[in-house]
Amino acid sequence: MLEISRDLVDQIVRHARADHPDEACGVIAGPAGSGKPNRFIAMINAARSPTFYEFDSADLFTLYKEMDERDEEPVVIYHSHTATEAYPSRTDISLAAEPGAHYVLVSTRQSGQNEGPYEFRSYRIVDGVVTEETVKVI
User: Fold this and answer.
1) What is the pLDDT of residues 57-95, one digit of tens each?
2) What sign for the dihedral angle of Cα 34, 136, 117, 105?
3) Which residues is 133 bridged to in the sheet?
4) CA separation for the pair 69, 98 (Å, rounded)
5) Which of 6, 30, 62, 110 is deepest in the core (most CB within 10 A)?
6) Where are the domains of the chain?
């Protein structure tokens, strides 16, 4: 189960809406070994695509160096889907490289950049196996 604050959920959704119609992406870091997401890091989708996201390699290197210095790890890796449901695509599954992370997907297909309905779901992706998990907003 993913336990996440309302504030972090709102930040993810705001980022997804702001980047729509392109996919948004980012990380929520937390203290290493805690499983607790607490530091929101919006990333730039280097692909600038409505159907694919890619972290900029230099930005990702800087982020991992910073997390290492702060004794953090990526607790949540998130991105948005702009025209489809909040479920990992084959590409998402093949690129999932953090077995301990929660992979959060937000779909903005119903409301785009506007206020309105969205889907917010979380998954564990390990060795190509996708398991949806409960999200508890605190």
Assistant:
1) 999 999 999 999 999 999 999 999 999 999 999 999 999
2) positive
3) 122
4) 19
5) 30
6) 2-137
CB under 8 Å to 120, separation ≥6 — which residues? 9, 12, 13, 86, 104, 105, 106, 135
Q: Please give the CATH number for the structural domain made up of 2-137.
A: 3.40.140.10
CA–CA dist 82, 42 (Å, integer) = 17
Residue pair 79/25 in contact (Cβ under 8 Å)? The answer is yes
Cβ atoms of 13 and 24 within 8 Å: the answer is no
Q: Percent helix, strand and coil across the chain, each rounded to 5?
A: 25, 35, 40
Q: Which of 47-51, 55-59, 132-136 has the highest mean pLDDT?
A: 132-136
